Amino acid sequence: MSNDALLVVGLGNPGPKYERTRHNIGFEAAQEITLRHGGKFASHKRTNADVAEINISGRKVIVAKPRTFMNLSGGVVKALANYFKVSPANIVVIHDELDMELGEVRLRLGGGDHGHNGLRDTTKALGTKDYHRLSCGIGRPPGRMAPAAYVLKPFARKELDELPIICADAADLIEEI
């Protein structure tokens, strides 16, 4: 099934209500890597995602933003992998991470979902944990705020200044793969 293409999927929630929220940092990072390499997203009806095809150092890279809610991302990731014939080892899922400070980014292969429902659904749909996770730190919620409420809140004005740097760092890690 596999070819050497890389499938990069930024996780987030669809619609203007969720733009610039912490949960949508995966969409933001996917946008950055796409713009950096001259790509443009277009609707891909067969997979229920917005998709851009770019080239990085001679390698085909498919960048996608699912049009489903975060917790239902797995079906879209699997549909993309099947359609573009990409094995799990060549998939990178970009997501928000509460257990990392704002601004930290980390790429790892495999591992747990750390309570992240988008990763949990992706692992279930793919039937394996052996795909790359690109974690973008958003920090813990202040005080006693529920994590679910925190991730759906927009970034504070001061945090928005960090967002382009976080997305650039994420794009740099994708380019290194």
Task: Explain the overall architecture.
- With 177 residues, this protein is α/β, with parallel strands linked by helices.
- 32% of the residues lie in helices and 24% in strands.
- The chain has helices at residues 25-36, 73-84, 117-126, 147-151, 157-160, 163-176; strands at 6-10, 42-44, 49-56, 59-66, 91-97, 105-109, 132-137.
- α1 crosses α6 (163-176) and α2 packs across α3 (117-126).
What string gives the helices and strands in order? EHEEEHEEHEHHH
CATH topology: Rossmann fold
Placed side by side, the strands forming the largest sheet appear as 2-3-4-1-5-7-6
How many distinct helices?
6
Strand content: 15-25%
Number of domains: 1
CATH class: Alpha Beta
The number of strands is 7
Active site: 23 (proton acceptor)
Catalytic activity: an N-acyl-L-alpha-aminoacyl-tRNA + H2O = an N-acyl-L-amino acid + a tRNA + H(+)
Protein name: Peptidyl-tRNA hydrolase
Binding site for tRNA: 18, 69, 71, 117
